[in-house]
Amino acid sequence: MRVAAVLGVDIGTSSSKGVLVDADGRVLRSATRSHEVSRPRPGWVEMDADVWWREFVSLSRELLAAEDAEVVAVGVSGMGPCVLLTDAANQPLRPAILYGVDARSTAQIARLTERFGEEEILRRCGSALSSQAAGAKVAWVADNEPELFRRARRLFMPSSWLVVNLTDRYVLDHHSASQCTPLYDTERQDWYAPWAKEIAPDLDLPPLRWPGQVAGEVTAPAAAEAGLPAGVPVVTGTIDAWSEAISVGAQGVGDLMLMYGTTMFLVHTVAGRLTNPSLWGTVGALPGTRNLAGGLATSGAVTAWLRDLFGSPDYPELLRLAEASGPGARGLLMLPYFAGERTPILDPEARGVLAGLTLSHTRGDLYRAALEATGLGVRHNIETIEASGGDIRRVVAVGGGTQGGLWTQIVSDITGRAQVIPTQTIGASYGAAFLAAQTGWTVSIETWNPVREVRQPRPALAADYDELYGLYRELYTSSKRVAHALAARQVRLLAGPPAASDNRGTEGAAP
């Protein structure tokens, strides 16, 4: 018997994921496509938009071939904020510049901050300019690729790129726009024309919708390519971390979502507008909501890097070794700033540090130190959120890193916070499916995705982790000058002619 289903697809940093979900929230089928980012120069992280649509089509066709389902709506999400510039005919002019892991716009951040004023940017936009700001990267293209920029007419992100390919509608969601600092006014919840015209006078910024609003319907050509029925609704979608928060119901005031993936993301829902120059103040994924958010530049990316260095043992074995290492990783301490760092230090020139090494340390110790480094970074962000006026009442975990239990346990032990772990932790694609379901069904995320377990902190470890956290904060301060000097050397030694095909590493989310 054919079942009605919604399709949710998410374009992530290291992979794209798709799910078919029925009206009860049951995942009928899921599929994944792995991909690589391009790192043509130190501090640059890019991806060709063709990958995003090609993988959507591949996922859609695989899922529909494997399951006798009738798709009644489509939901999308993707990493962000990204900057994909196209001409008026939606032809990409260059590879997309990715979110805060790409740190190329330092000069533009400084110039625009001086031009508009740090306090005025924070007041109007909710966030200070940083490597996360899409508007600064638009300015980078204008400064460094002026001939190309003169042809640019449209701005896309992965979710909106899927929407335009599916529906031929050019739209963007409000949340994604609120990460285009300084182009969006979070008070008026619209593009801020005076600054947008100065930074990108010829760019036709997209009309804005909320993530759950219908953007359009699947066109006949898109239907033929992706194997979907023509005419079914497609929702506007949003950035993956916010779709993850939707997938686990972390939308209430006081909720904090922790996304365990290639990077670590934190989204706290607040009662009213809060700002802090060390965090990102955004509009939420749902109308009327506001968030104070943060993100580590790496988390699963470091564990994947270690796995590759170790000769690719499987993750369950590495988790077993890390558990045997024990709290504190037998005296190791890691700074997880392998791609610079986003919040709360906002330092693109920070670098990874592993302190305390001896000849007796093992793979398990190093892997444990990486997991603990994420927990220490999360604690730093949580303290900054609460110092800004945030009121964290519930922490909800989501993403691939929740599997196995050790990583979430370490984060709870370090932060002293219990974490709610729902039944489905597949993440953003499931959130996109839920948004799509709301176009025709009456559904609730609490029914779709009930709580599976609650990870409690272990009080006996609190004192040891308090000491380690103090050392973590001190290590960054004491090593900052050296890290910045080494970052400058890396630019001098490694920089060369940009080449889109020069892939220098893969970001992978892993437990």
Automatic annotation (TrEMBL):
It comes from Micromonospora globbae. Keywords: Carbohydrate metabolism, Kinase, Transferase, Xylose metabolism. PANTHER family: SUGAR KINASE (PTHR43095), XYLULOSE KINASE (PTHR43095:SF5). This is FGGY-family carbohydrate kinase. GO terms for molecular function: kinase activity. Pfam families: FGGY_C, FGGY_N. The lineage of its organism: Bacteria, Bacillati, Actinomycetota, Actinomycetes, Micromonosporales. Residues 6-244 form the Carbohydrate kinase FGGY N-terminal domain. Belongs to the FGGY kinase family. Residues 257-437 form the Carbohydrate kinase FGGY C-terminal domain.
